[in-house]
Amino acid sequence: MSKLIITPDSSASADGKLISITPESAGWTYVGYDMIKLHEGQSFRSETGDREVCLVLLSGVADVSTASEQWNAIGRRMNVFEQTPPYSVYVPNGDFYKVVARTSLELAVCSAPGRGGHTARLIAPEQVGVEMRGYGNIERRIHNILPEQEPADSLLVVEVYTPNGHWSSYPPHKHDRDALPEESFLEETYYFRVKPRQGFAIQRVYTADRSLDETLVVGDGEAVLVPRGYHPVSAPPGYDVYYLNVMAGPHRTWKFCNDPDHHWIMTENSKE
């Protein structure tokens, strides 16, 4: 199996952590991602240390507390494919968080370097920007959970719904050069869910010189590392695909470049 695919731990540890991606394990500098599954009544607690965190309640209801804040019974959707924006909580570095599950809970822990510039806050569904991006069979639904317009030090967090038979992260684009204003350097993780669960997504990760060129078959509950290169996603006919993106780099802005071989797809559409 490709080293870019991270599979969940079927013998999940006592704390419910199914996936753990750290800068050290990924071989990069900025992005961390944990996927945690809790049963009703179970809890998870962690210090943020030198990292800021965005807790995304993928499904279920929970109580969440930090050193200075407490939110009870947050969470609304019980399945990511309800396509309603999630509840999330931003926690700065130098803090802690505790999550107590009131129902079965799927919790994403997104992290990146923090600089102490912000306070803990709730991100309610009504605060999440929703947009449809693309056209035809490259149309997909976007939930901007923590975009660059909202306060944070490093993190960018977004979730994407790709209908069956559609493509997303398309035309193929990249953000692997620190070359602002044209392009920003951002590491990225993708956490996938597929409906029905026996399906799969296809993701290609490749560079212009093909020093990296992998075509990945990604199953429900798996994650993908995108250290560099273009990274389009395809949802096969019959299978809807959800993914949660976490991005971070030296500058908190998303400036990307399309693969010049395929940029014409957007150019042609703009002429219609």
Q: H/E element string?
A: EEHEEEEEEEEEEEEEEEEEEEEEEEH
Global mean pLDDT: 95
Task: State the major sheet.
Answer: 7 strands, antiparallel
> Which residues sit in consecutive blocks of at least 5 with pLDDT less than 50?
none
Sum up the overall morphology in one term. globular
Radius of gyration from CA coordinates: 18 Å
Strand content: over 45%
Q: What is the spatial order of strands in the main beta sheet?
A: 1-22-19-24-14-13-12
Ends apart, CA distance between termini: 42 Å
InterPro entries: Deoxy-glucuronate_isom_IolB, KduI/IolB_isomerase, RmlC-like_jellyroll, RmlC_Cupin_sf
Keywords: Isomerase
Organism: Ferviditalea candida
GO molecular function: 5-deoxy-D-glucuronate isomerase activity
What structural keywords apply?
25 strands, EC 5.3.1.30, mainly beta, 272 residues, globular, 48% strand, RmlC-like_jellyroll, RmlC_Cupin_sf, 5-deoxy-D-glucuronate isomerase activity, 7-stranded antiparallel sheet
How does this model look, in words?
The chain has about 270 residues and is mainly β. Helix content is about 5%, strand content about 50%. The strands form six sheets. It has a seven-stranded antiparallel sheet, with no helix packed on it. Strands 2-3-10-5-8-11 form a six-stranded antiparallel sheet. Strand 17 and strand 18 form a beta hairpin. It is globular and about 50 Å long. The mean pLDDT is about 95. One of its GO terms (molecular function) is 5-deoxy-D-glucuronate isomerase activity. InterPro entries: Deoxy-glucuronate_isom_IolB (IPR024203), KduI/IolB_isomerase (IPR021120), RmlC-like_jellyroll (IPR014710), RmlC_Cupin_sf (IPR011051). Its EC number is 5.3.1.30.
